[in-house]
Batch of 4 targets.
Target 1
Amino acid sequence: MTKTKHAQLTEVYQAKPQQKSIKMHSNVILTFNTDMNEFDDFQEVFNLNLRVSPMEKSSFDFLNRELFPRIVEKCSTLSRDPKDLIKISTASDWDLFSQTTGLPALCDLCHPCKWFFGYDRLDLDFWERNLMVRFGFGLNASFYELFTTQLLHGGK
């Protein structure tokens, strides 16, 4: 009895060892454009473990799927509004990403692993503008207003 091509392919696929995702540690600093009186600090610092699959398509897609939605969740947990975000800074184990996927890490692509936001910033790149649209980051934040206020108050 001969097997159909579909049955043969199904057997081959099922016989392959399933590749597991790896946890990549990431330190995240969120900087907000909020009043010091409303919160104790302008920043929130926390750690995340991001799941890296050997089948990742790019470091950009990986972060869009793994990091940014979790930042929105963390903002909710911290009672912070993502619309008040002016900067996301990260430090991650990008060597682990490269070893797991065989792809270049974000820092290998000359990206600083920081994203800036603000509705009146003219220097944002496409990715930053896209994150503002997709996740609402920085929609309430005015870079120029913050800068002017700091200048008026002697950098405080």
Target 2
Amino acid sequence: MSASEWLNWQRFAAVEPFGAPMLDVVQAQLRAVLAEIHRDPKARTEPFAPQDFLLFARPVEPSDAHLVDGLTAADWRLAMYLKALQARQQSTESPTAGDPATP
């Protein structure tokens, strides 16, 4: 597959999603319907929603959920990734990196 064909498929997927994420949505709708059919209204008063049955969806972080120094968990993950990447680059730049004879 050429790079241009790959980009065309990415553009198409942005307009018309397909694949595992879409199958998960379709199956979540079916699961919600089945759960609603068998739901005991006395035990559970609120109805089921398809979002309750998404297997591959990531939980959405509230935008006001701040951690230390006003950073969200996503910001911390990015900062830790960049810090590890920087350390890795510095270790490959040193002339004795990976040399077992070097103390």
Target 3
Amino acid sequence: MPAWLAALLCAPGLVSAATATATATATATTTTTASEAGAGLPAVSAPSRETAAMPLAGDELAQWMRQTAQTALDGHTDNGPAPRVEVSVGRLDPRLKLAPCRKVLPYLPPGSRALGATRIGLRCMEGSKLWNVSLPVTVKVFARSLVAATAVPAGTVLQRQHLSVAEVDLAASSDPAIGQPTLAVGRTLARNLAAGDALRQADLKPRLWFAAGDQVRVVAMGAGFQIAADAQALGPGHDGQTVRARMDGGRIVSGVATADRRIELPM
């Protein structure tokens, strides 16, 4: 059995990319930027992310976990300095008695998050007796992002003085954090925020682009063409939500509210 796996059976710890093999007493912390994560390892593809079969040492497991976290960061952060990633590995059930294994495949089980408190699977691919176990891990992703400067009640129309910038664990929630003031100022807060709380997308009420009965512009778009016509909105136009409108000829169409008095119909 690999030494790093035997160590996981004994004690929790933080995996360090500088450690060749895990030991039962290791508790060193490692941090890295997302741009450095998983360099030189096989690509991890959704949804099973089971393409990285390899004999594993402790550093290889840490690198694989960072690469998995990197794939999950796409669309999770605003453009800016690369966040730093911390990977904390729990321990396997000490009652497990696993047969020796020459090749272990790490994978992210379907439905599991690659960030935050989660579990990864470890599957024996070459051994006298194959096995499949799960291992608790915590992946934290720290970057500077918007936080509440003071306690702010729900219903507040956010202004710049309501907000500050601080280091935030982006992985603490699946809801993306907001890093740019231009994406928050003028928006209405959907829930109470305590001082220091990270501002996330679900904390903001959707923009209301128009009300029911308003005259709107319906734009049908396709590859290389765009057609626009006037219509009357049959419901409120919340940003990114589907709404119906009645065209001048009486036809009812459905599209997505995308801007002030604008409904888009992809074709």
Target 4
Amino acid sequence: MEKVYGAGQGGGARGRRKAAEGSARREPAARTIRVLVVDDDRVDRLALRRALAEAAGVHEFREADAVLAAIDLLTAERFDCVFLDYNLPDGDGLTFLRGVRAAGISVPVVMLTGQQDDQIAAQLAESGAADYIDKSDLTPARLLQALRRAIPAGEGGPDAAPRPNP
């Protein structure tokens, strides 16, 4: 790797030019969005990961296939958003959401379900769900919309400006 000198570090005008060229070529680092995908169906988890990567450039995922596994991950790691299937083998999404909120975990949760139920949707909103998506409406565009609602640009969401390099 070629050493690049900046002004005052030696190398004269040539060094300053190389330093300027080097900094101009660097792309600002975009914030990495960390997503937890909770679904008992492996195929659904994979489809969700692919759609999120395509729509929002999300590339850092963790997965859980049940409520207890998700709670373990949420207490051990920081996530920017959780995409949660409503029906899981060891509990339902509403109970999970209420428990997470009661434990003081404030991560945005986007609920996914295969059944459309306006009463459940209302209860989820009252309990603090960031969004509710019927699995039949699961498209990259709809996932991006949900991610934008869950993590606004001012909080480092998918529309946030890239951070400049220090």
